[in-house]
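Protein modeling request. Please complete all fields; requests missing the sequence field cannot be processed.
Requester role: graduate student
Desired output: 3D structure, token encoding
Chains: 1
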Amino acid sequence: MQLEKVMYARLFSKLQVGGIDLKNRLIIAPTYLGYAGAGGTASPLLLDHYRLMAASGVAMVVVENATIDHPTASGSERTLRVDTEKAGFLHTLAAAEGQGIQSALRMTESPAQPGRGEYSAHGAPMRSMK
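Delivered output (130 residues):
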């Protein structure tokens, strides 16, 4: 039990990274779910999912892969889109941030180069993990 206390002592402590305040060190990584509506819109199911994730106690939710070049960079018809205001991706981020947490969005520019464009919710580029 003592070892566990030492190993996880900082897990629930506050942290500041690049000017962003996190209430703890728990972050939900982007995972493609296919919950977007037809054409890549933010469906009620997708929004409910991110509200639940945000309410789980994590400090940040990174919204699943989204395309900025539909249909060229879309993996499917249900890949979240950010290339049109009608897609509603801002509602997805707002669903997460409405719980008082940080959010970010993972965007893909081309299927040939996945992960080229990763941006925070506020538009600041994130460092590539190459």
